[in-house]
Batch of 4 targets.
Target 1
Amino acid sequence: MTQLLEVRRLRKIYEGHGRIVEAIGDLSFACAPGELVCIVGPSGAGKTTLLKCVAGLIAPTAGEVVLGGARVAGPPPGMAVVFQEYGRSLFPWLTVWRNVALPLEHHGVPRGELRRLVDDALAEVGLADVHTAYPWQLSGGMQQRVAIARAIAYQPKILLMDEPFAAVDAQTRADLEDLTLRVWRRHGITLLFVTHDIDEAVYMGQRVLILSASPTRVIEDLAIDLAAERDQLATRSSPRFAELRSRVYEHIQRAKRAGAGEVRP
Amino acid sequence: MTRALRSLARALGLPAVLFAVWWLVSAGSKSFYLPPLRAILDAFGPTWSSRWASDVLPSIGRLLIGYAGAVIAGVALGVPLGGRPRLRAALEPALELFRAIPPPALVPVFMLLFGIGTPMKLLVIVSGAVWPVLLNTIEGVRAVDEVLSDTCQSYGITGLTRLRVLVLRGASPQIVTGMRQALSIAIILMVISEMFASSSGLGYAIVDFQRAFSIPQMWSGILLLGALGVVLSLGFGVFEARALRWYHGQRSAHREDG
Amino acid sequence: MTRVRHAGRRRAGRSTPSLPRIGLGVLGIAGVAAVFELIPRAGLVSPRFLPPTSAMLEALGREAATAAFWRALLDTARGWALGLAIAVAAGAVAGVVIGSRRGLRAATASTIEFLRPIPSVALIPVAMLLYGAQLRSTLLLVVYASFWPVLLQVIDGVADVDPVARDTALSYRLSRWVTIRHLILPTALPYLMTGVRLSAAVALILAITAELVIGAPGLGHEIEVARVSSAVPLLYALIFVVGLLGVAVNVGFRALERRVLAWHPSVRREAAA
């Protein structure tokens, strides 16, 4: 089975103000089409840098990102990104409907199909009745759902989510996690989900990639062998969940301790 | 109903009182330079009915055309400057210098280069009114939200769409601030350019009255000029409320959360 | 040995570092000067109307050697400084009085909104009649125009006083003077500084305008004289000097504002003046 996304020996170094920061050391992994891969790591592990490299927003110092066989040298088509700061990723001067429709409008999707895609996407996230509202009139959770709807309507092959639910409250987070799982399953997209929340990563993922502290590498690629149907109550209280969760937690603790004393020659 | 009446009363209260005081205090005035308010108001009709089409309207026309030119030039230059930090760093000292020259001081130069016709007057207005628009546009473009910009990039929104939907709309609150300042400057420059070497226009008429010692007419012109300023300011307020409805809404939403 | 630190959220591009920035700025100025040197020399515009930069600088040098130039400069400075001081004092006092009472704020709001947009140039004929080509004409214009930015800013500043703090002062029955000194002034100070900065720029513009149009003594008047006597390089040189004055005022008051506010936790945005 050919991989949809391949990250090969990715390296990212920042230079500035006389300091050299090696955000990503030597990072490699791959995603098959339709997989849901979660990425966790200690804070400052360069998770966002990794996501931006995959999204083509930042150029890596070395190594490459290959999507669908083509090298990523800028934001590739067929990819959508959902950022953590939902308030800042939506246009405050456009209604919810126009926010979702904008990428399609720009890419010249015919009017009838555009309307159908946008309406369906909004219905899927449960926001069909607020499409004339402005983003700042909605709650945080609803705003993030608009961002997800926008991604769905775009019909991407791969969806990147950068700690999307870190800034919402726990109850909303649970709802959004389940919404994401439903969307993923319904559209069969590949989903790369970055989070700092270990429970969330284990709950959602088919695989969990555990990153080290900087210079970041993949410490472990953990397969999550829980039942495919996830349930907030049942899954999270199962013994296997606890085992997997502890495993991830241990790795991260070890990674944090290893990173704390590191000095670069 | 009473609330609306009360705020209307509050708005008109002090001005009405001041107006009445002015009327009463100046009623018996024998001063040549400060005639009774009544005389000024009486002079209004006869003075301006004939001059309306020949002086006032052309002045307003020049003002609006010059203002529009300044806004377009300011935005057109401000957008590229806002997005290119190195170009901005190179031009910044020069811009600092040019913008610090009091616009009236440039009138002699413009008269020299362009004569004393309408083009000169338009250029004077543009040369002064462009600066607040330009500088505020630069600031607005610089401050475009990074996350929003990344979002556009990742969805492949580039070029004209990006300019229209992200840059210009995003910078619009700042641009409108600049437009407001530019309006006051444009009015001042319109009048100055006409007071100087001109044979028509509202500013010219006022100075002409002053030179001929037609004092009540002069004051009526000053009142007219003041009224023009107020009307344009109110009109701008309406424009701003419409254009930035989303911005005011967003800010009050944040204030409530804050 | 460089210590590895954690990477934060960074974009690929970074802001221009300062030394190259200064270099770029110098390059910019040099470029502009070169352009203004070449345009008349190339004949694009007649040198009679647009003298090359070198001729302008030469005229500037000659003028700076005359006493009349420095007298005019001092006259302009005097009109500017005096007018600004009067406007700031009046604006601050009126601002404190109006701003500290909600009733007054509401009652005067419409009057201020009505008077503010009246262009200061409307007073030019009045000044010409009343005072002629004297310093007082300059003062009339400068004070009228510079009063408003200060007034509006101080009203906002005084109105911004924390109501809880004000109630505390009231309940401790602090004297009016103590309240003003320790509560109102510190809160209103950043606003006042912004107002003074805005007014300083406006004051210079109006001073030059009064001198130019009415003929009050100062650089503006010298500019008009230069124009009438067709001393074109001198005309440009004087405008350049006035521009430098403007830059000095802008930069100086920005620095002053920063210095005074260095201890102040909040940064105020200037209202659309």
Target 2
Amino acid sequence: MEWLDELRRRLSVLLRRDRFDDDLDEEIQFHLEMQAEENRENGLPAEEARYAARRQFGNRMLLAEDGRAAWGWNAIERFARDTKLALRLLARNPGFSSAAVLTLALGVGVNSAIFSIVDAFLFRPAPVKEPDRLVSIANRTPKHRGWPVSYPNFADWQRENQVFERMAAYRTYSFVFADDAGADRVPGMEVSAGFFEVLGMRPALGRIFAAEEHQFGVAPVAMISYELWHRRFGSNPAVLGKTITVHGEPSAIVGVAAPGFRLGPLADVYVPLERNAREGRGSANSLYALARLKAGITWEQAASEMDPISKHLEELYPASNKGNRVDLLRFGQLRRDEIRSPFLMLLAAAGLVLLIACANISNLLLAKAAGRGQEVKIRKALGASRARLVSQMLTESLVLATIGGAVGLLFSVWGCRALLAVIGDLDRWPGGAPLGGIGVDGRVLASTLSVVLLTGLAMGLVPAFHASKASLASRPAPKEGRRILDILVASEVMLALILLCGAGLLTRSFYHLMTQNRGFDASHVLTLSLARAEGQEPEDACQRVLEEVQTLPGVEAAAAAFPLPFGHGFSGDNFQSEGSPDPGRGHYTDARIHYVTPGYFRTLGMRLLRGRWFTFSDCGACDWRSFPRAAVINEVLAREAWPGQDPVGRRFRLGTPVPNSAWITVLGVAATTKENGLESDTGPEIYMPTSSSTDILVRAAGDPLRLVPAIRARIRSVDRSQAIYDIYPLEERISESVSSNRILAWLLGMFAGMAALLSAVGIYAVISHSVARRTQELGIRMALGAEPRDVRQLVLRQGMRPVLAGAALGLVGASAATQVLSSFLFGVKAVDPLTYGTVALLLGVIALLACYLPARRATHIDPIKALRYE
Amino acid sequence: MLILKTLTRGPLHGYAIAQQIKLTSDDVLQVEEGSLYPALQRMLMKGWVTAEWVQAAPKRRARVYRLTAAGRKQLADDVSAFTRVMEATFRVIQPA
């Protein structure tokens, strides 16, 4: 406890500083008087005695200083004094201060905003009970890692293991949700027993599912999300006991999930999984599994227990489980893997912006420090040590950084919201962990604080050491000061160029993606999906819907298809052409199959290369049960299956060949399209006729969205219980499919823009400053007959030298740094001379402009005034 | 240690402490004012001494330092440590 008492005493000094100072002073005074008295008694005259006492005593100020040092607050007091001084200096220089604070705030704000999002997704533990004991369990097949699992395998994992306290699984599923107000389609989840218990979710209302409600054949129940409860039921507690129709069954609502509860994709309705899960082991790998480790069980123990289980399953079910193993992953790891690299890239880009901001402020501080040579000399003359000067100047930059950081934090609160608005809902991948809120929280605050301290030191160190070097004996070497400035400018240009190159590449790649030949015309095409609340479709509903819609004024064509272009899901099968030898299992051509109604080709504006499109007569009474006899194939498949020959009239069959499987005749060859995705290369594709699908395409003469009310009314007139959902113009689906490319290009472009702006400001500041300092020299030059042109060139040359050096380094750096981008690039190489050249030119022009303004000012120097000024 | 020892004889002010040490050591040991007062401040912080103001003359106050229990203990520790060192030193420098 002794140190506590000591601390108390020291604190009391800090709090009653004046009294302690006075006491010490009075005590010394007393000592002096006593000494003087003694001296007088020894026979010295009064005046002499006092002086002698002083002499004997030594430096009174120093002693008082030492006495104070004993109180142990010197460092802090010095810091407080330095801080006060720094604030006064900043206040006296509002132009510099606001420029520096704004620059920093921009840098810090961007970093904190990005970090708050990245942290929520990548680093922060999930806001659930004991997140580190939660495990995501994935299936590892010979082809895929982190794959979902089928229900029978999941059930075996669950039964055989001894290491997990609880295991659960879920899959996303969307339901047609019907109540008195009408039919609606909502995203949902099928969850296994124990799902909510594993996550430790407490319902906001009602209860979670009971164990027996998961069993086959019991009365159906459902839970709804807090948000749906709020939106659809006005947060009325009477919602419990109401029924909603799910899977065509009226299900009682037993509970409302906690607010904000979600596990990856949004879910508004939860239903028990096991009631409906009757699937084969090999098919439908659709479940995401998670589990909570038993107390005292380590990760390794769990992994070594699961491995033999999966081996045993492989032995029992070789057909479906060959080579399948179990992967234990950190909870939410699947989503993290999905988004890690773009996120880290953005974080790095934001870091570069901050670095440039730092270099900029270093520049400003250096320029300012050059003007402080006088002050430094005086202080040194008064006995200040270099360390003391450096620490004082560092305090100044720390104060600056703190203010900038505080403003930056404000920026980041706003910036984070803006970013989320731009990025949209990122939480779309299943296999994630709950996020909790995204925003500026304690962790972001802490990271910002450390960033601020680091930047404060980083940007202050060089100027502080440089300025404190000023010595009494010699004039500072102006050359050296300029070299440091030049290096800073060059590094700013380098960093900005790297960012600009990255952004340029992504933009070019995105442009390429959007303007490439798609093979179809998406403009004026509307897509929508139909679903009925009560299970099965009537046989001819789709036909009638298409007929009704086609007769609407403004509609040019309509079709139904599975899958929709840029939609979810796909269908594919083994392809074998007639007459070719059976290549054997595993070696068939894998063709994607589109089931489309005859209007599809016209609706999408596809191009026919040979033969003809099919019509309704080609499938006769074709529906999904009777197999079609004719099809259209795409160019790729034609080339692959019948190289150099006309495929029209030839036949092929699908699936694993059985002796009497039906032959399908090729009617026509379509030009290659990018309807599966702009980024993927188009493979072999087959268009099969069908008469119905729940996904509809409509080509309009004008803006397709204006037709929506009319289309909706027509469809309702055919069948009242149709839910119409996912109504999007096809263009929107396309741009949605490349949204991550767009966002990445956009964000990186924004950062690069900031970087270019900051470095332009930096160059401008440096050159302006140097012109101001050389006023006299330039004046003399002009007095001696230098033309304005000469002066301008002199200044420009001096300014552009570091810019060019930085640009050269930047190009080298960019060709290395952009390698990390290559997986995000489409149709552009990471080292793209055109992009690099354009970007370097752009930055050069900006830099030239930044140099030109001060250069022009230099030519306006009046020689007489310049000389008199001295 | 010297300061603490001096204070065992009773409370004293800074000037008196300096005089005392000078006197008792027959002018061999002189405590510099420059180290006396910082030392006293340190001891105050450590809690080895307490200080109070007393009226020394009609218009003059003196700060008087008084040894505390902790100070006495510290003194004992210091003295024993010092003695041990001195004895050892003697043994080394005295001719055998």
Target 3
Amino acid sequence: MSETVRELIGHGDVRRIMLSDKVYKVTEASCSSPETIIGLELEIESWRGRAQEFQGFDFTEDGSLRNMGIEAISRPTKSKFVENLLSTFFKNFEITDGNYSERCSTHVHVNVLDFTLEQLASLALIYQVTERLLFGYVSPERKSNIFCVPWCQADSKLDLVSIITTGKWRELKAWSKYTALNLLAVTQRGTVEYRHLEGSCDVQHIMGWINLLGCLHNYAKETPVEKIKAVLLDINTSSAYDMFLQSVFGKHTSMLFTPDYRVDLEAGVIDAKLLFTKGLPTGENVLRRYVRAMEQAGLMPEANVMFQAGLRPEVVQEDDIVDDDDEREEEYTTMFAPVPVAIPTRPEVRMTPEMELQRDAVLDNLANTQRFFTPQRQANQELNAAVAGQPIQATTNAPRGVRPRNRW
Amino acid sequence: MKDSLTSSNYRDFRQRYEGVFGFFSPEGKKPLLVCLLSVEETKVNFMDVLGVSYHVNVNSGIPFDFLPIERKVVNIANDDILYACRKPARQWQRGVCAANTSIVSLCVPNRRLGVMFNLVAAVWNTSVPYAIAIQEFLAGMRKNVALDNRFSIIGESVYLYNTPIGSYESATLKVISLFKQEISDTIVRNNLKFKVEVINE
């Protein structure tokens, strides 16, 4: 439980690839979590600049964009440098609102290499509670975007809290990349990826988003899962919801206020509680116990109760989350791989004199036939000999008009 | 997201929307749930849930509205409960289709339903309203009922979306303690006389 993500995934030190602290000025005053290491993926269209490394950015093509769209990927950097980094970038390449369409988005990777699994579970829980509010901060269309599906709208087959806290974190490899908070990145890069934010060159808007994420991470790092669970169980009044929000987001809370923020928070609490339901005695478990007791007593339980207790459970949706075609192809390849078959060995045959004569005749016939193919064979021999550094011998049985060629 | 067929976006439009469900929403008229059957360079062919065919010409400017479904449970007429949610996956298609939407029956174990027009229509707007379904349940005309868009009673079990959270027997709901507050709120909102108890965990 106390192992960090870095120890689990065997990732190296992120500081080796980080942007130097000397490149950009610090804007610490407005940062909720100035030392948090983040990376940005900026999707931009109508790109006029030259794709080259620019003060800590790498550029790559993105197939989902149009009109000379590119994706600018920042090197990992501390939050306190991001404002200056973005301002310089947008100014240098003269990026305006015209460079963005509904296809563009801004993804923020936040480092969790130093998180323990329990802290990661806390982050998942607190994110689930506040997800609807976070979507309130970004453009309304993002909620219906197919590449940024909210957790609260999808049906995860993964029991997240138990996976993380019981150390079965490898199951996160089955996570779908196209969820709003992408946990697949934990196993790949030691980060969590927030895909909510629309494409924007408004530095204050992006910094506001980064500050909200910083608050989430600070709270998750300081608060154990059991404490969050206790808070979720107690929270049932309007003032309690407000206090809870204040405790997570502090002075940045006001950025999340919408007319329905309490309704959203209430719904988020229910969604978060769902993450705890695995293994608890539910109605079906109770029914199963009842059926078992009836059977032990030699009585026949009612058919409808058996049906209810038997196989009613949550609906299995096997391929809901899998989005990696390669993995599936591999699975199919394994499935349809040829079954190894034992080849029977040929029994030894004792040659009679007649058979030997017959064999010699066949071999002579074969030798005559091969004469016609000799030039090619000879050429191959020459080639092999030349490669091996041996002298080339002239052929004697080449057909007329065909001479061995000395290639070397 | 609203989008319409133009001369310049024909290929994109076809790739994204052919075969999906969306709303035909001419200005000033009630949006109509439709299935886009085919997209040609000159027109979009589509039909409504009754099977009536329509087409709209290129550059007409009349938009389709492509909205994802909300995660919820709904009552349908044959005493079944449908559970619908979104599927995150790599895809080109927008609008409601099998690549991004899942609709399952909660009353038949492990039964996966396709994303068919009548089911999509049921999830969007033709489901039995919760209040009516509850009255039918109380009158014994239904054995399964969705109380709101989250909670449902299916036979002797209580569900939150597709997760069993307790049991139901003779007007008493026994649920795990996590959801006592929420299920009590739902009972009160629906003016039901059910008792809510907590299962010993």
Target 4
Amino acid sequence: MSGPETERPAGTPQVGEPGTVAMTIGEGVAQATYRPDLKAKNPKLRLSGVCVTYIGRDGHDTEAVRDVSFEIEDRPGVGEIVVFLGPSGCGKSTILKAVAGLLPPTKGTVHVGGELVKGVGRDRGMVFQAYTSFGWLTVRENVEYGLRLRGVAPKERSERADKYLSAVGLADFANRYPKDLSGGMKQRVALARTLINQPRLVLMDEPFGALDPQTRWGMQGLLLDIARAEDNTTIFITHDVSEAVYLADTVYVLSARPARILHRVNVPAFANREISLKSSAEFRAVERQLLDLLYAPS
Amino acid sequence: MAPETFGLRTNLSQGTSFALGLVSPIVLFGTWCGLTYGGFAPPDFLPSPTEVLRGILQLFIEHDLWGAILISSRRIGIAFLLASAIALPLGVLMGSFQAVNRLFEPVVSPLRYMPISAFIPLLILWFGIYEKQKIAFLFLGVFVYLLPVVVTAIRAVPDELVQTALTLGASKFQVIRTVLVPAALPEICDSFRVMNAISWTYVILAEAVNPEHGLGYMVELARTHQKASWSFAGLFVIGGIGLITDSAIRLFWNVAFRWKEKTT
């Protein structure tokens, strides 16, 4: 994959800046410090006062998201990764589904590139924790799926699939069926299948949650490489603090259900993202900070 | 250490598995031979294997058993096609849209609990005693079984597959055509094996009304002639057909759904 090496945004936290938290180690924060501050001129994504209550399988109303507002500024060529960190089952996925247009907000609005989101669209691709490879299609056919839906000619389809298959390291498995793939490879298929549509936003719902630690690290590295090369913004949901620190430019810390944004933390731009980073003091400090925020009594 | 033969949920070697599978047929066949050739049972009560074989040949040569098989197969085939033509699209819609499901479910689901044979008098009233009645009966038997299978299979497709397709730009009907149906198809086809078995049972019931042709007629012939050997012949032939068609469906499944793990 080609693309200019871009500088990641420097996110040195500053005390007193709206919506940020000072990186003071070991200091528990009891109350929400996040104050929505929607004033970007040209936001790629803006959620304003989004509440989601949906009808569950049992027919009862479930309040999943309460008054969530935030925005992601459009910074072309950055390949920003925004992480939503929160306890399991807190409603993080629901925020993502509201952005995807899979669940309409009960209150509030979602705007993508200035346009009101009214339903699903392929400018917002989604990758789930559950393996979603279409088992009856080969790896190549899976990756080409979105292009085939809109009638792209076979030759162009296959050329573009080749590009993304090699980007995720699956070129040799193009003609296999998903049943022959490992969990990590299935998630690579899902990633390639989403990226080939060139979405403006890639929405990832704990995509590496079911993978073993080693595969997980590999996939995190792959995601960072791809985010740098592609000009899309990734919203990544996880409950794994270390994963959040490793991947994120910005972390939003969420409350238990119904999900609200409690804190926003700008992760400093690390000099490199080698695996060894994870055991460095610098990395550990940010991890510690997020843990304190996540488990602070509130 | 060799695996324990009666270990809880342990797998068996091919040889052991094959040998164990031979035990019950050999015991059954041996007992049968002993009782009949040993003179413990009179031939009009329990015919010997030789008698049954002779009965099969008699039915084939003198009573056109082959024609009867074709007639019964044809009836099953037509009923199968009709039932699929309605149950497949209806089931796909009911499985895909909760609203459609609620529209039809209150009428369709009690059908499953009704004894199908109790419909015979009604079907005679509505369709007469000839071909139409027999096909209608088989249709009903297959339909009430197939419809809930299709609905369940479609509903069992994980939400994430549907949501993935939607975010990749698929319309509702593209999701149904390119995700829900292909994902549910193996299970639906697998249910054809059970329906095949049901059909060969019901066909005898259907053909017991005004028996003129078909396998039901052969069974009826055995009854009127009081020939136990013909009854056995009929059972063996129908059982054989069941086994052959079942293997055919399984073979088709394994070829068509190579992408899935193999079924047993």
